[in-house]
Structure prediction request, 764 residues.
Amino acid sequence: VSLDPAAAGVLGTVRIVGTGLLGTSIALGLRSLGVEVVLSDPSPTALALARDVGAGQPDRGDRPVSLVVVGAPPDVTAQVVVTELAEHPEATVTDVASVKGGIAAAVRAAGGDVSRYVGGHPMAGRERSGPVAARADLFLGRPWVVCPSESAGPGDLPVDLSGGVPARVETVRRLATALGATPVLMAAQDHDEAVALISHVPQIAASLVAARLVKIGDPAVGLAGQGLRDVTRIADSDPALWAQILAANATPVRRALRDLRADLDAVIDALAALGEPADAAIGARAALARIVAEGRSGRERIPGKHGEPLTVYEVVTTLVPDRPGQLARLFDDIGEAGINVEEFALEHAPGQKVGLAGVSVLPAARAALEHALAERGWHVVA
Amino acid sequence: VSLDPAAAGVLGTVRIVGTGLLGTSIALGLRSLGVEVVLSDPSPTALALARDVGAGQPDRGDRPVSLVVVGAPPDVTAQVVVTELAEHPEATVTDVASVKGGIAAAVRAAGGDVSRYVGGHPMAGRERSGPVAARADLFLGRPWVVCPSESAGPGDLPVDLSGGVPARVETVRRLATALGATPVLMAAQDHDEAVALISHVPQIAASLVAARLVKIGDPAVGLAGQGLRDVTRIADSDPALWAQILAANATPVRRALRDLRADLDAVIDALAALGEPADAAIGARAALARIVAEGRSGRERIPGKHGEPLTVYEVVTTLVPDRPGQLARLFDDIGEAGINVEEFALEHAPGQKVGLAGVSVLPAARAALEHALAERGWHVVA
Prediction:
């Protein structure tokens, strides 16, 4: 996983419009590969900051650009794309907004030259925003969806690669590859439906579950375990930004939420039926089990690391004193035993000055790991 | 965190009814502390297995018991408690079921001596079940809710400890303490409302989100990131067991889910309004932002490690080659720098043979960690 100078070498001069986190990170990455980068932002402060962190020089309009990357906020991206298409009549124009169908439609409706617009969505980000938080390597190892704007409907893709990828699509793919990302070709509508299910619906679910805790008492919330923490982790999000993202993908998200509400209604009805005579209650338990079973089937669809099918790892849990150096000792011991850690999680029990470390390994390695840890004095608990 | 022989010393002979994972784990822990334990289970196989792993001898009824722990499945727990109260007229009887109000009510309705029944809920478990999966230290560092059955309503607790805790409640608290758990006194109804919000509603939400993925395409699910994985992790659960758990806590769960559905309806209505004239759309964006903001407020209620208020840690992310020994090297380097790791997560990007390690530290330690890692050749990315 690294930046790719070969892919960067053919990009020509790149104009970055919008020097926020994503735009500036792209600029930094390209600059580190020797690509000529010029910058533009309606905010003089943001522009100056991006220049100061080494992202390139403000665009004086004195040289032709071959690629424009629009890193504007989602609600103005389409308008900026249309302007850039008109002002740079030879250039390929791409963007980084997290919803794609509406932008392509708006560009088309405004009479923009859609043959030169190729939508993009690098699936990377961080908690902080703005040019100062930017990193040349923000996109390393992340998927970067590339949506040719001609393909408005589902099923248009994958493009038939036997005849080669259209040149402007290939340019955006090279941009992604240059920055160490994995380009993924998708139709805009397919992308939007996908992010509704894998990103927007989970966000709403996390927020709705977490919202139930606003009025909970201290003793009750003190019982919270890792399950609640996992489900609600992404609820710690920016409301204004998410209102914009959800609004931009309103139709696919609404459709998915209506399906979810139908299942939720079934759960609520089943719970209500449990007060009824025995027959109704038996059916109610079956309905509850069905929802949980469907969730398990859906969970199995999520690929594991490296994009391979999900492997069911085995978790070995051990106690770790809460002091510097203890995790180093743990991983030393695991490494000495020649065992590869697939996943790792550290959890702390309430009121206790000790952590529970969950080490996930391939099932075949479980016994060896338990043995190695016990032999080295670790307290393996599960 | 350890087993507590002093607390165990006063328990007398303990009878375990139901030698599944929890019952057998309790038996193993008590035996390791020198407590006399006798076992009972309707399944001769489960009973023999528990004896064989060292959990104690089958109860021949030839000695008086002072404490009975009922580890039966939730749907028969109340009935077993009633039987045990009758057959051991001096003993304190407790249980380990995950829902408490219904059991206390059923015991009372059946004419059981509720003055000797003290409900319990050790908040521990593992993926595997049965006596062979049992561990003496399963409860180390976990909360163990203790519900005196006299307190059926909310607000009865905390008990006024100035006059001391009732003796039978104290016995169950000592059981929890002996096994290294943290006893938490709560009224049964408060407990059930708490677990509805912190365990049962998150479980349903995770299942509902994961169920949306059953029909998703491979390219779409390939975009899944850590957010989706976190939200759906607990969806990988046993449908039959969860049907039983949810059914046993039907009223509090239904109430919480109806509140959740009202918020969900507001989201769906807001998304629908975005196709309307501009005024409606502005109100819709505000409604979406409100839901996300409420979720963030609720999320802030979840305590962090050690039961202290949630500290907002800073995350330093670094690339880790996917080979044995690399995590050891990472934690060696962190330990050498004298930095304490608060939380740790390992993530893998699709298609890439490298992991992203997120090291959470106190804000004050962030710069030192970044410096220490960079100095030692680590590729810090965020």
User: Anything to note?
Assistant: The CA atoms of residues 346 and 357 of chain B lie 5 Å apart.
